[in-house]
Structures are given as structure tokens and as C-alpha cells.
Amino acid sequence: MDLDKISSELPVLIAGPTASGKSALALEIAERDGGVIINADASQIYDCWRVVTARPSPADESRAPHMLYGHLAYDAPYSAGHWLREVAPLLTGPKRPIIVGGTGLYFLALTEGLAEIPATPPQIRTEGDRLSLEDLSKDLDPRTADRIDMQNRARVQRAWEVLRATGRPLADWQDDTPPPLLPRTACTGLVMETDKEWLEARIRRRFAQMLDQGALDEARAMLERYDPALPSCKAIGVPELMAYLSGTLSLSEAEEQASIATRQYAKRQRSWFRSRMSKWAKITPEL
Description:
Layout: E1 12-15, H1 22-33, E2 36-39, H2 58-61, E3 66-67, H3 80-87, E4 97-101, H4 104-112, H5 122-130, H6 133-138, H7 142-147, H8 153-166, H9 170-175, E5 188-192, H10 196-213, H11 215-221, H12 238-245, H13 251-276, E6 281-283
Parallel strand pairs: 1-4, 1-5, 2-3, 2-4, 5-6
Binding site for substrate: 18-23
Family: Belongs to the IPP transferase family.
Protein name: tRNA dimethylallyltransferase
């Protein structure tokens, strides 16, 4: 897609798999046309991880306004509903929003609406934390299973919690969704479309760069607070680096396992975006 064809007035939404160049594209558009870059990545909201989650660097943040990056403590509760409430006032601010990230649920909540599901009681969440992915999955109804990534534990557990807490399947709640804050007709939606081999090579290089840039220092700083049950501590690369620091893995093993986990995640993202964002404009990064 020719960037010159992107409206300089409509909000821009940039989705895509990890390491596909989304942040660079957002910065290019912001510097060319102005605007504020808004995070739509569930791992980049936490203040404890900049390098590990590939948040924009301080140098990049100095080139254009950035919002909703690294603004939460590692143990703060957060959901698509929290994100939607935070992004709502930014849609009508003085600067055009350029929303970028890899959490597809955030984009769908914004452009298709978000079901108003009651909060999950802590005891049910604790119960869900103890169950395996297989145990969580077997209770879900077929309609809900068709709508979520059944390999993504967080998504499956969320659907299980909704069913357990409300007695209604997640799909039923979604069918009662209110109107969206930003309909697709009111914005430019872009999905990064990458060559598989190019992306996998980039993922491997990027994790090596993260190590050079201080990823281990971030992990050491969180070692005493690390809780694998917390969403912030499930960010790809974090469990692997913690395993290295605890002596369970060598550094090369941690790097390899993190690269594999990232490639698997990117594969799921690509499949999800193809399925749920098939009508969004495709854009290919420069190889």
C-alpha cells in the first residue's frame, strides 16, 4: 500500500505480528503527518519491561508523542476494557491517533465494540490459574472456541472465567456488544503482512539485540517480584530469562527457547489477523 494514500486526518490503526515493523511505520506516519502514537500491545503497558517487550526507545519517543506505554506497575490488573477506557479520550484529543500493536483483541474492541462483561471474582481467577489449558478448553462451547485462539492460554482462561462467573458463554456476551467507539469506516486500518522466513530471521536477530541492550538487567531487576501467574510476567522472553537467572537454562538455551516462543506467537498472530482482519488494508514492510 502506498503511504501517500493514507488520509492525514483519519485515525490510523496498525496491527501485525511481533517484530514486523509496526512501530517504525507508526513513527514514519507520525513524523510525516503529525499525530500521537498510542500503544495497543498488552505487554508494552508495563513499566518493568522496555527492552524485553520491544517498547519504543527513549530516542523514538522523543521524535513523536507516545501514549499508554509503560504506564502500569507489573502487578496492576488490566484488560481490553481498561485499555478501551484509557484510549477513549485520546480519540478526540488535539492530535490524530495512530494506534499500533499486536493485541488484536484491543483493535476489535475499538472497532467492533466490547461486551460489558462483569468483573471476574478473584477466587474464580485463582481457580482458573490452577487448571491446565486442556481443562480450561473442554468447558468452552463451540461458538466461543471458534472465536478465540485456543492455543492462547490467556484468551482461553478469560473465556472460561466468563462462563464460570456468569453462567453465560463468552460468545453470548459478545453477541450483545454495544456500538464501537471507532467504527472501521471512521479510520484507516492497516495489517502488516510479512514473509515468513523474513520474519523468523528478524525475530532471532531481535532477541539477540535485546540481550545486548539490557534485557537481562530488566529481568534481574524483577527477579524478587517475578510471579509467573501475572500477565506482565508472561511476556515472551521473560520466563526464559528468569529460567536462566535461576540456573535452569543456559543463556543460549534461554535465547533459543525465547526465539521459538516468539515465532510460535507470531504464527498465531498472523493466522488471527488473516481471519479477523481480512478486510483491513495489507502493507508489507521494506525487506
